[in-house]
User: What shape does this take?
Amino acid sequence: MVFTNNRKRPLLKCGFAHRMRGRVRITCRAVRYLRQEQDDLEAHFSELRGVLSLRMNCAASSVILQYDPGRTNDEELLESVEHIIGMHSLNALQKEREERNMLAVQERDLHEEGLSTMLLRSISAGGLLLTSWITRAAVPATLTGRIFGFTGFGALMLAAPLFRSGLGALRKNLLPNADTLSAMAVLSSVLAGKSASALTVLLLHDAAEAMTVYTMDRTRNAIRDMLSVDNREEVWRLKSDEPDSPLERICVSELKRDDLIVIHTGEKICADGTVVSGRATINQAPITGEFESVLREKGGKIFAGTVIVEGTITVRVESVGDQTAVSRIIHMVEDAEGKKAAIQTYADRFSSALVPVNILLAGVVYLATRDIGRALNMLIIDYSCGIRLSTAAALSAAISTAAREGVLIKGGGSIEALTEADTLILDKTGTLTEGKPRVESVMTISERYSRMDVIQLAAAAEETSKHPMAAAILAHLQRSGGSIPLHTEIQTIVGRGVYTDVDGHCIRVGSKRFLNECGIHTHPMRDQASKLFANGESVIFVARDDEIIGLIGIRDPLRENMKKALNRLRLTGVDDIVLLTGDLEQQADVVARRLGLDGFESELLPEDKARAVLRLQSRGSKVVMVGDGINDAPGLAYADVGVALGKTRTDVAMEAADITIAGDNALMLSGVYGLAHHTMDVIKQNFFVSIGINTVGLLFGGLGILPVIAGAVMHNASTILVVGNSLRIFFYDMHEPMKHT
Assistant: This one.
């Protein structure tokens, strides 16, 4: 599809073809390829807040929206339309893959049956097998007696799902699957009067599949426990939009878009939305990984799954149920089966290709020996079950283990790609650093001014600013025990600095350029400023009237354990670690030298980072990009594996990246690499065990050394063994340095 790159990831860009108040025409090339999804797209567009009417033209790649300017604006609509088209593009790609795979072998979906059904079937087979051994019933002489006998008929009934799946695969595309082979083995065993062998096959086969389903269910539960909101929970909703409207208590499942809900201290937020009144501190750690609570007031965005620490807010609901950011994350991980790793795809194809071989071997052995037992062994002992189940179980266990540690992996393909990666690209702010600037240095022009004087005067000018640098100055003053002097109204010169009056003196705080434009010479502190720059600090100049009085050096501290994490990554086979940042060259150079990076590029725009990723890939490198998931989204999308680390916006970070580390521990980055390598080691062990044991079984079975029931035990025990080996991944410690198994 033309709206994808080489990783089949949509890279859509919508734009305005025409706009005026109340009406906008948005164009996007991908629309022309989404004709089949037009009805769904129009339904989603019509649900956007403030949309009054719409007209979609796939041929012209555009959508025209009439909207209420009092409820929304053109920029908000553009963002929403781009997101909806992107999600439908993903769905279209998935349909395309399914169509391409129509001729592939159709396997049974284990989740359709469920763990309890498999366990019940396994127990029933065991009970029938035990009964046949206790009673030592004679083998019926007639074919009818064998089919309708107690154990024979029971075995055939328990194998009904295998018969449905096996015959369904043959009927659909004439390709037998693993269930076809198992069904033939059960039927042949019953017809040959070896119902005990048939029951043994079913007992161990269902036990192995139950272990696999348990692993997958544990993965889903780990993610849901980490993120989801229970729809049975209740929430307070205003009966109308009036401020004094009475409250009613309803279930979360009854919420609709544009409802007004009131959330109090200690309650979990159950929907995405915007605060319309009130203020509260919110713990967003389950979603964004921020270890500090954030303040949200009117206009602030909130996410489902987060918790009110203190305060009460009224929120206008924007996304509910499956449309919330947290639900999209859950579905992405649950849909990981559709994003199989290459090794898993290979295992499925390899095992499927061997099914006809087993059938052919059974026929050849029977014609050569006229021994039904040897022929049965060729059907019972096959490679497909062990190989297919062990890869699925291992990858699912890895995703579950990661989720337990606050790491979301969207599919097995990302796990395998990590083990093949040789280049790591890192963003600086919020990734290598904490994203919270701190005052590192304060210098004065002379002894006439103390460091406290400089900080207090700077704080007076920065008191109302929301800039991170201003927050760093105010926080430093608070820690130092100082106070903000009285001052007049603060004036801001965008991109330059701020100024105010303190005791009749004009206090200016900002860049060197700002002071120079105001006629203030900064050369008296040129050497001190150069020293701070060389140390990787951003320099804030402070002046009183027409005289520079001091400098404030601010630096964003490196994330704790980041250097240790990068050192561990070197041991996993990462050859090149590169920094890409929008910061100044001098600051990037300091960070690169402190962390021992192999190179850096500075002063980059988001599209420049994406080009850098493509440039490395064109040289044959397998690239992992680690960023904050917002301005790094293009790079995350183009990389072989995109990783969002740190305090990020959920809807961007978790949808743009393949892996999201929803915490503040840098060691989790190396932990994910270690988990990926451990998982691939386990899969390789599974291949060796499954192929080795079954090859020996086929050889001994064909020579007549191995009885049919022993062959059934040997084959299915190998399957249980490799699935059990995969379960070891649950106990992998992502906090420890990687250890190859």
About this structure: The mean pLDDT is 77. Residues 667-702 form the longest helix (36 residues). The chain has 27 helices and 24 strands.
